[in-house]
Amino acid sequence: MLNWNQLHQELERASNRHRQLAAKYEQFAKCVAEQIGAPAFHIKGIGITLNLDQGAFSTIFAGRTLYFIFESVSSENGALVGKVTCYLKKEFPTLKYISIGDFQFSGSGESTLIDPMENDPINIGIDLGALYVVLNYIHESLSK
User: Which of 3, 16, 62, 125 has its CA 20 to 30 Å from the CA of residue 27?
Assistant: First the structure.
């Protein structure tokens, strides 16, 4: 059991880290929304709704609604990292949410997803990286 000072320090550190990760997630969501919403965006029919105060955003495409949910989780070394899980909403015959996949990311935005062309981690804090991740999940949902 931690003593009072240790507990206070650990929780303060966790709170600060969570806020940093939440800010990176919000940047990710806003990057995607800005690009999808641009009049010149080449893929038509994608809608996006931001619910950042709830740690979520959703996309709609080809009759499919996807939710991108943020949380902070403990990494192998005990530090908090961001985690985004993508769920496909299915309403019939009963309402259910099917996990399409998830990834983790650092405070700098570096994710656990690897760019197949570069063999490097995708950074969700960069416009193209953020869009690439979301479009891949949308594409994956088409087979579900």
Answer: 62
DSSP 37-76: HSTT-SS-S-EEEEEGGGTEEEEEETTEEEEEEEEEEE-T
pLDDT digits (tens, 9 = 90+) for 25-74: 999 999 999 999 999 999 999 999 999 999 999 999 999 999 999 999 99
Is 0.90 topped by the overall pTM? yes
The residue type at 54: Q
Other C-beta atoms lying within 10 Å of the C-beta of residue 64 = 15
Task: Name residues whose C-beta falls within 8 Å of residue 81's C-beta, 6 or more positions apart in sequence.
Answer: 21, 72, 73, 74, 75, 104, 105, 106
For residue 4, what are its two tokens? 């009072």
Q: Are 43 and 88 in contact (CB under 8 A)?
A: no
Residue with tokens 């990494």: 75
> Quick count: other Cβ atoms within 10 Å of Cβ 78?
7
Kindly give, in sequence order, each residue whose CB lies less than 8 Å from that of residue 69, ignoring residues fewer than 6 positions away: 55, 56, 84, 85, 86, 87
Strands, DSSP E only, in 1-144? 47-51, 56-61, 64-74, 80-90, 96-105, 110-114, 121-123
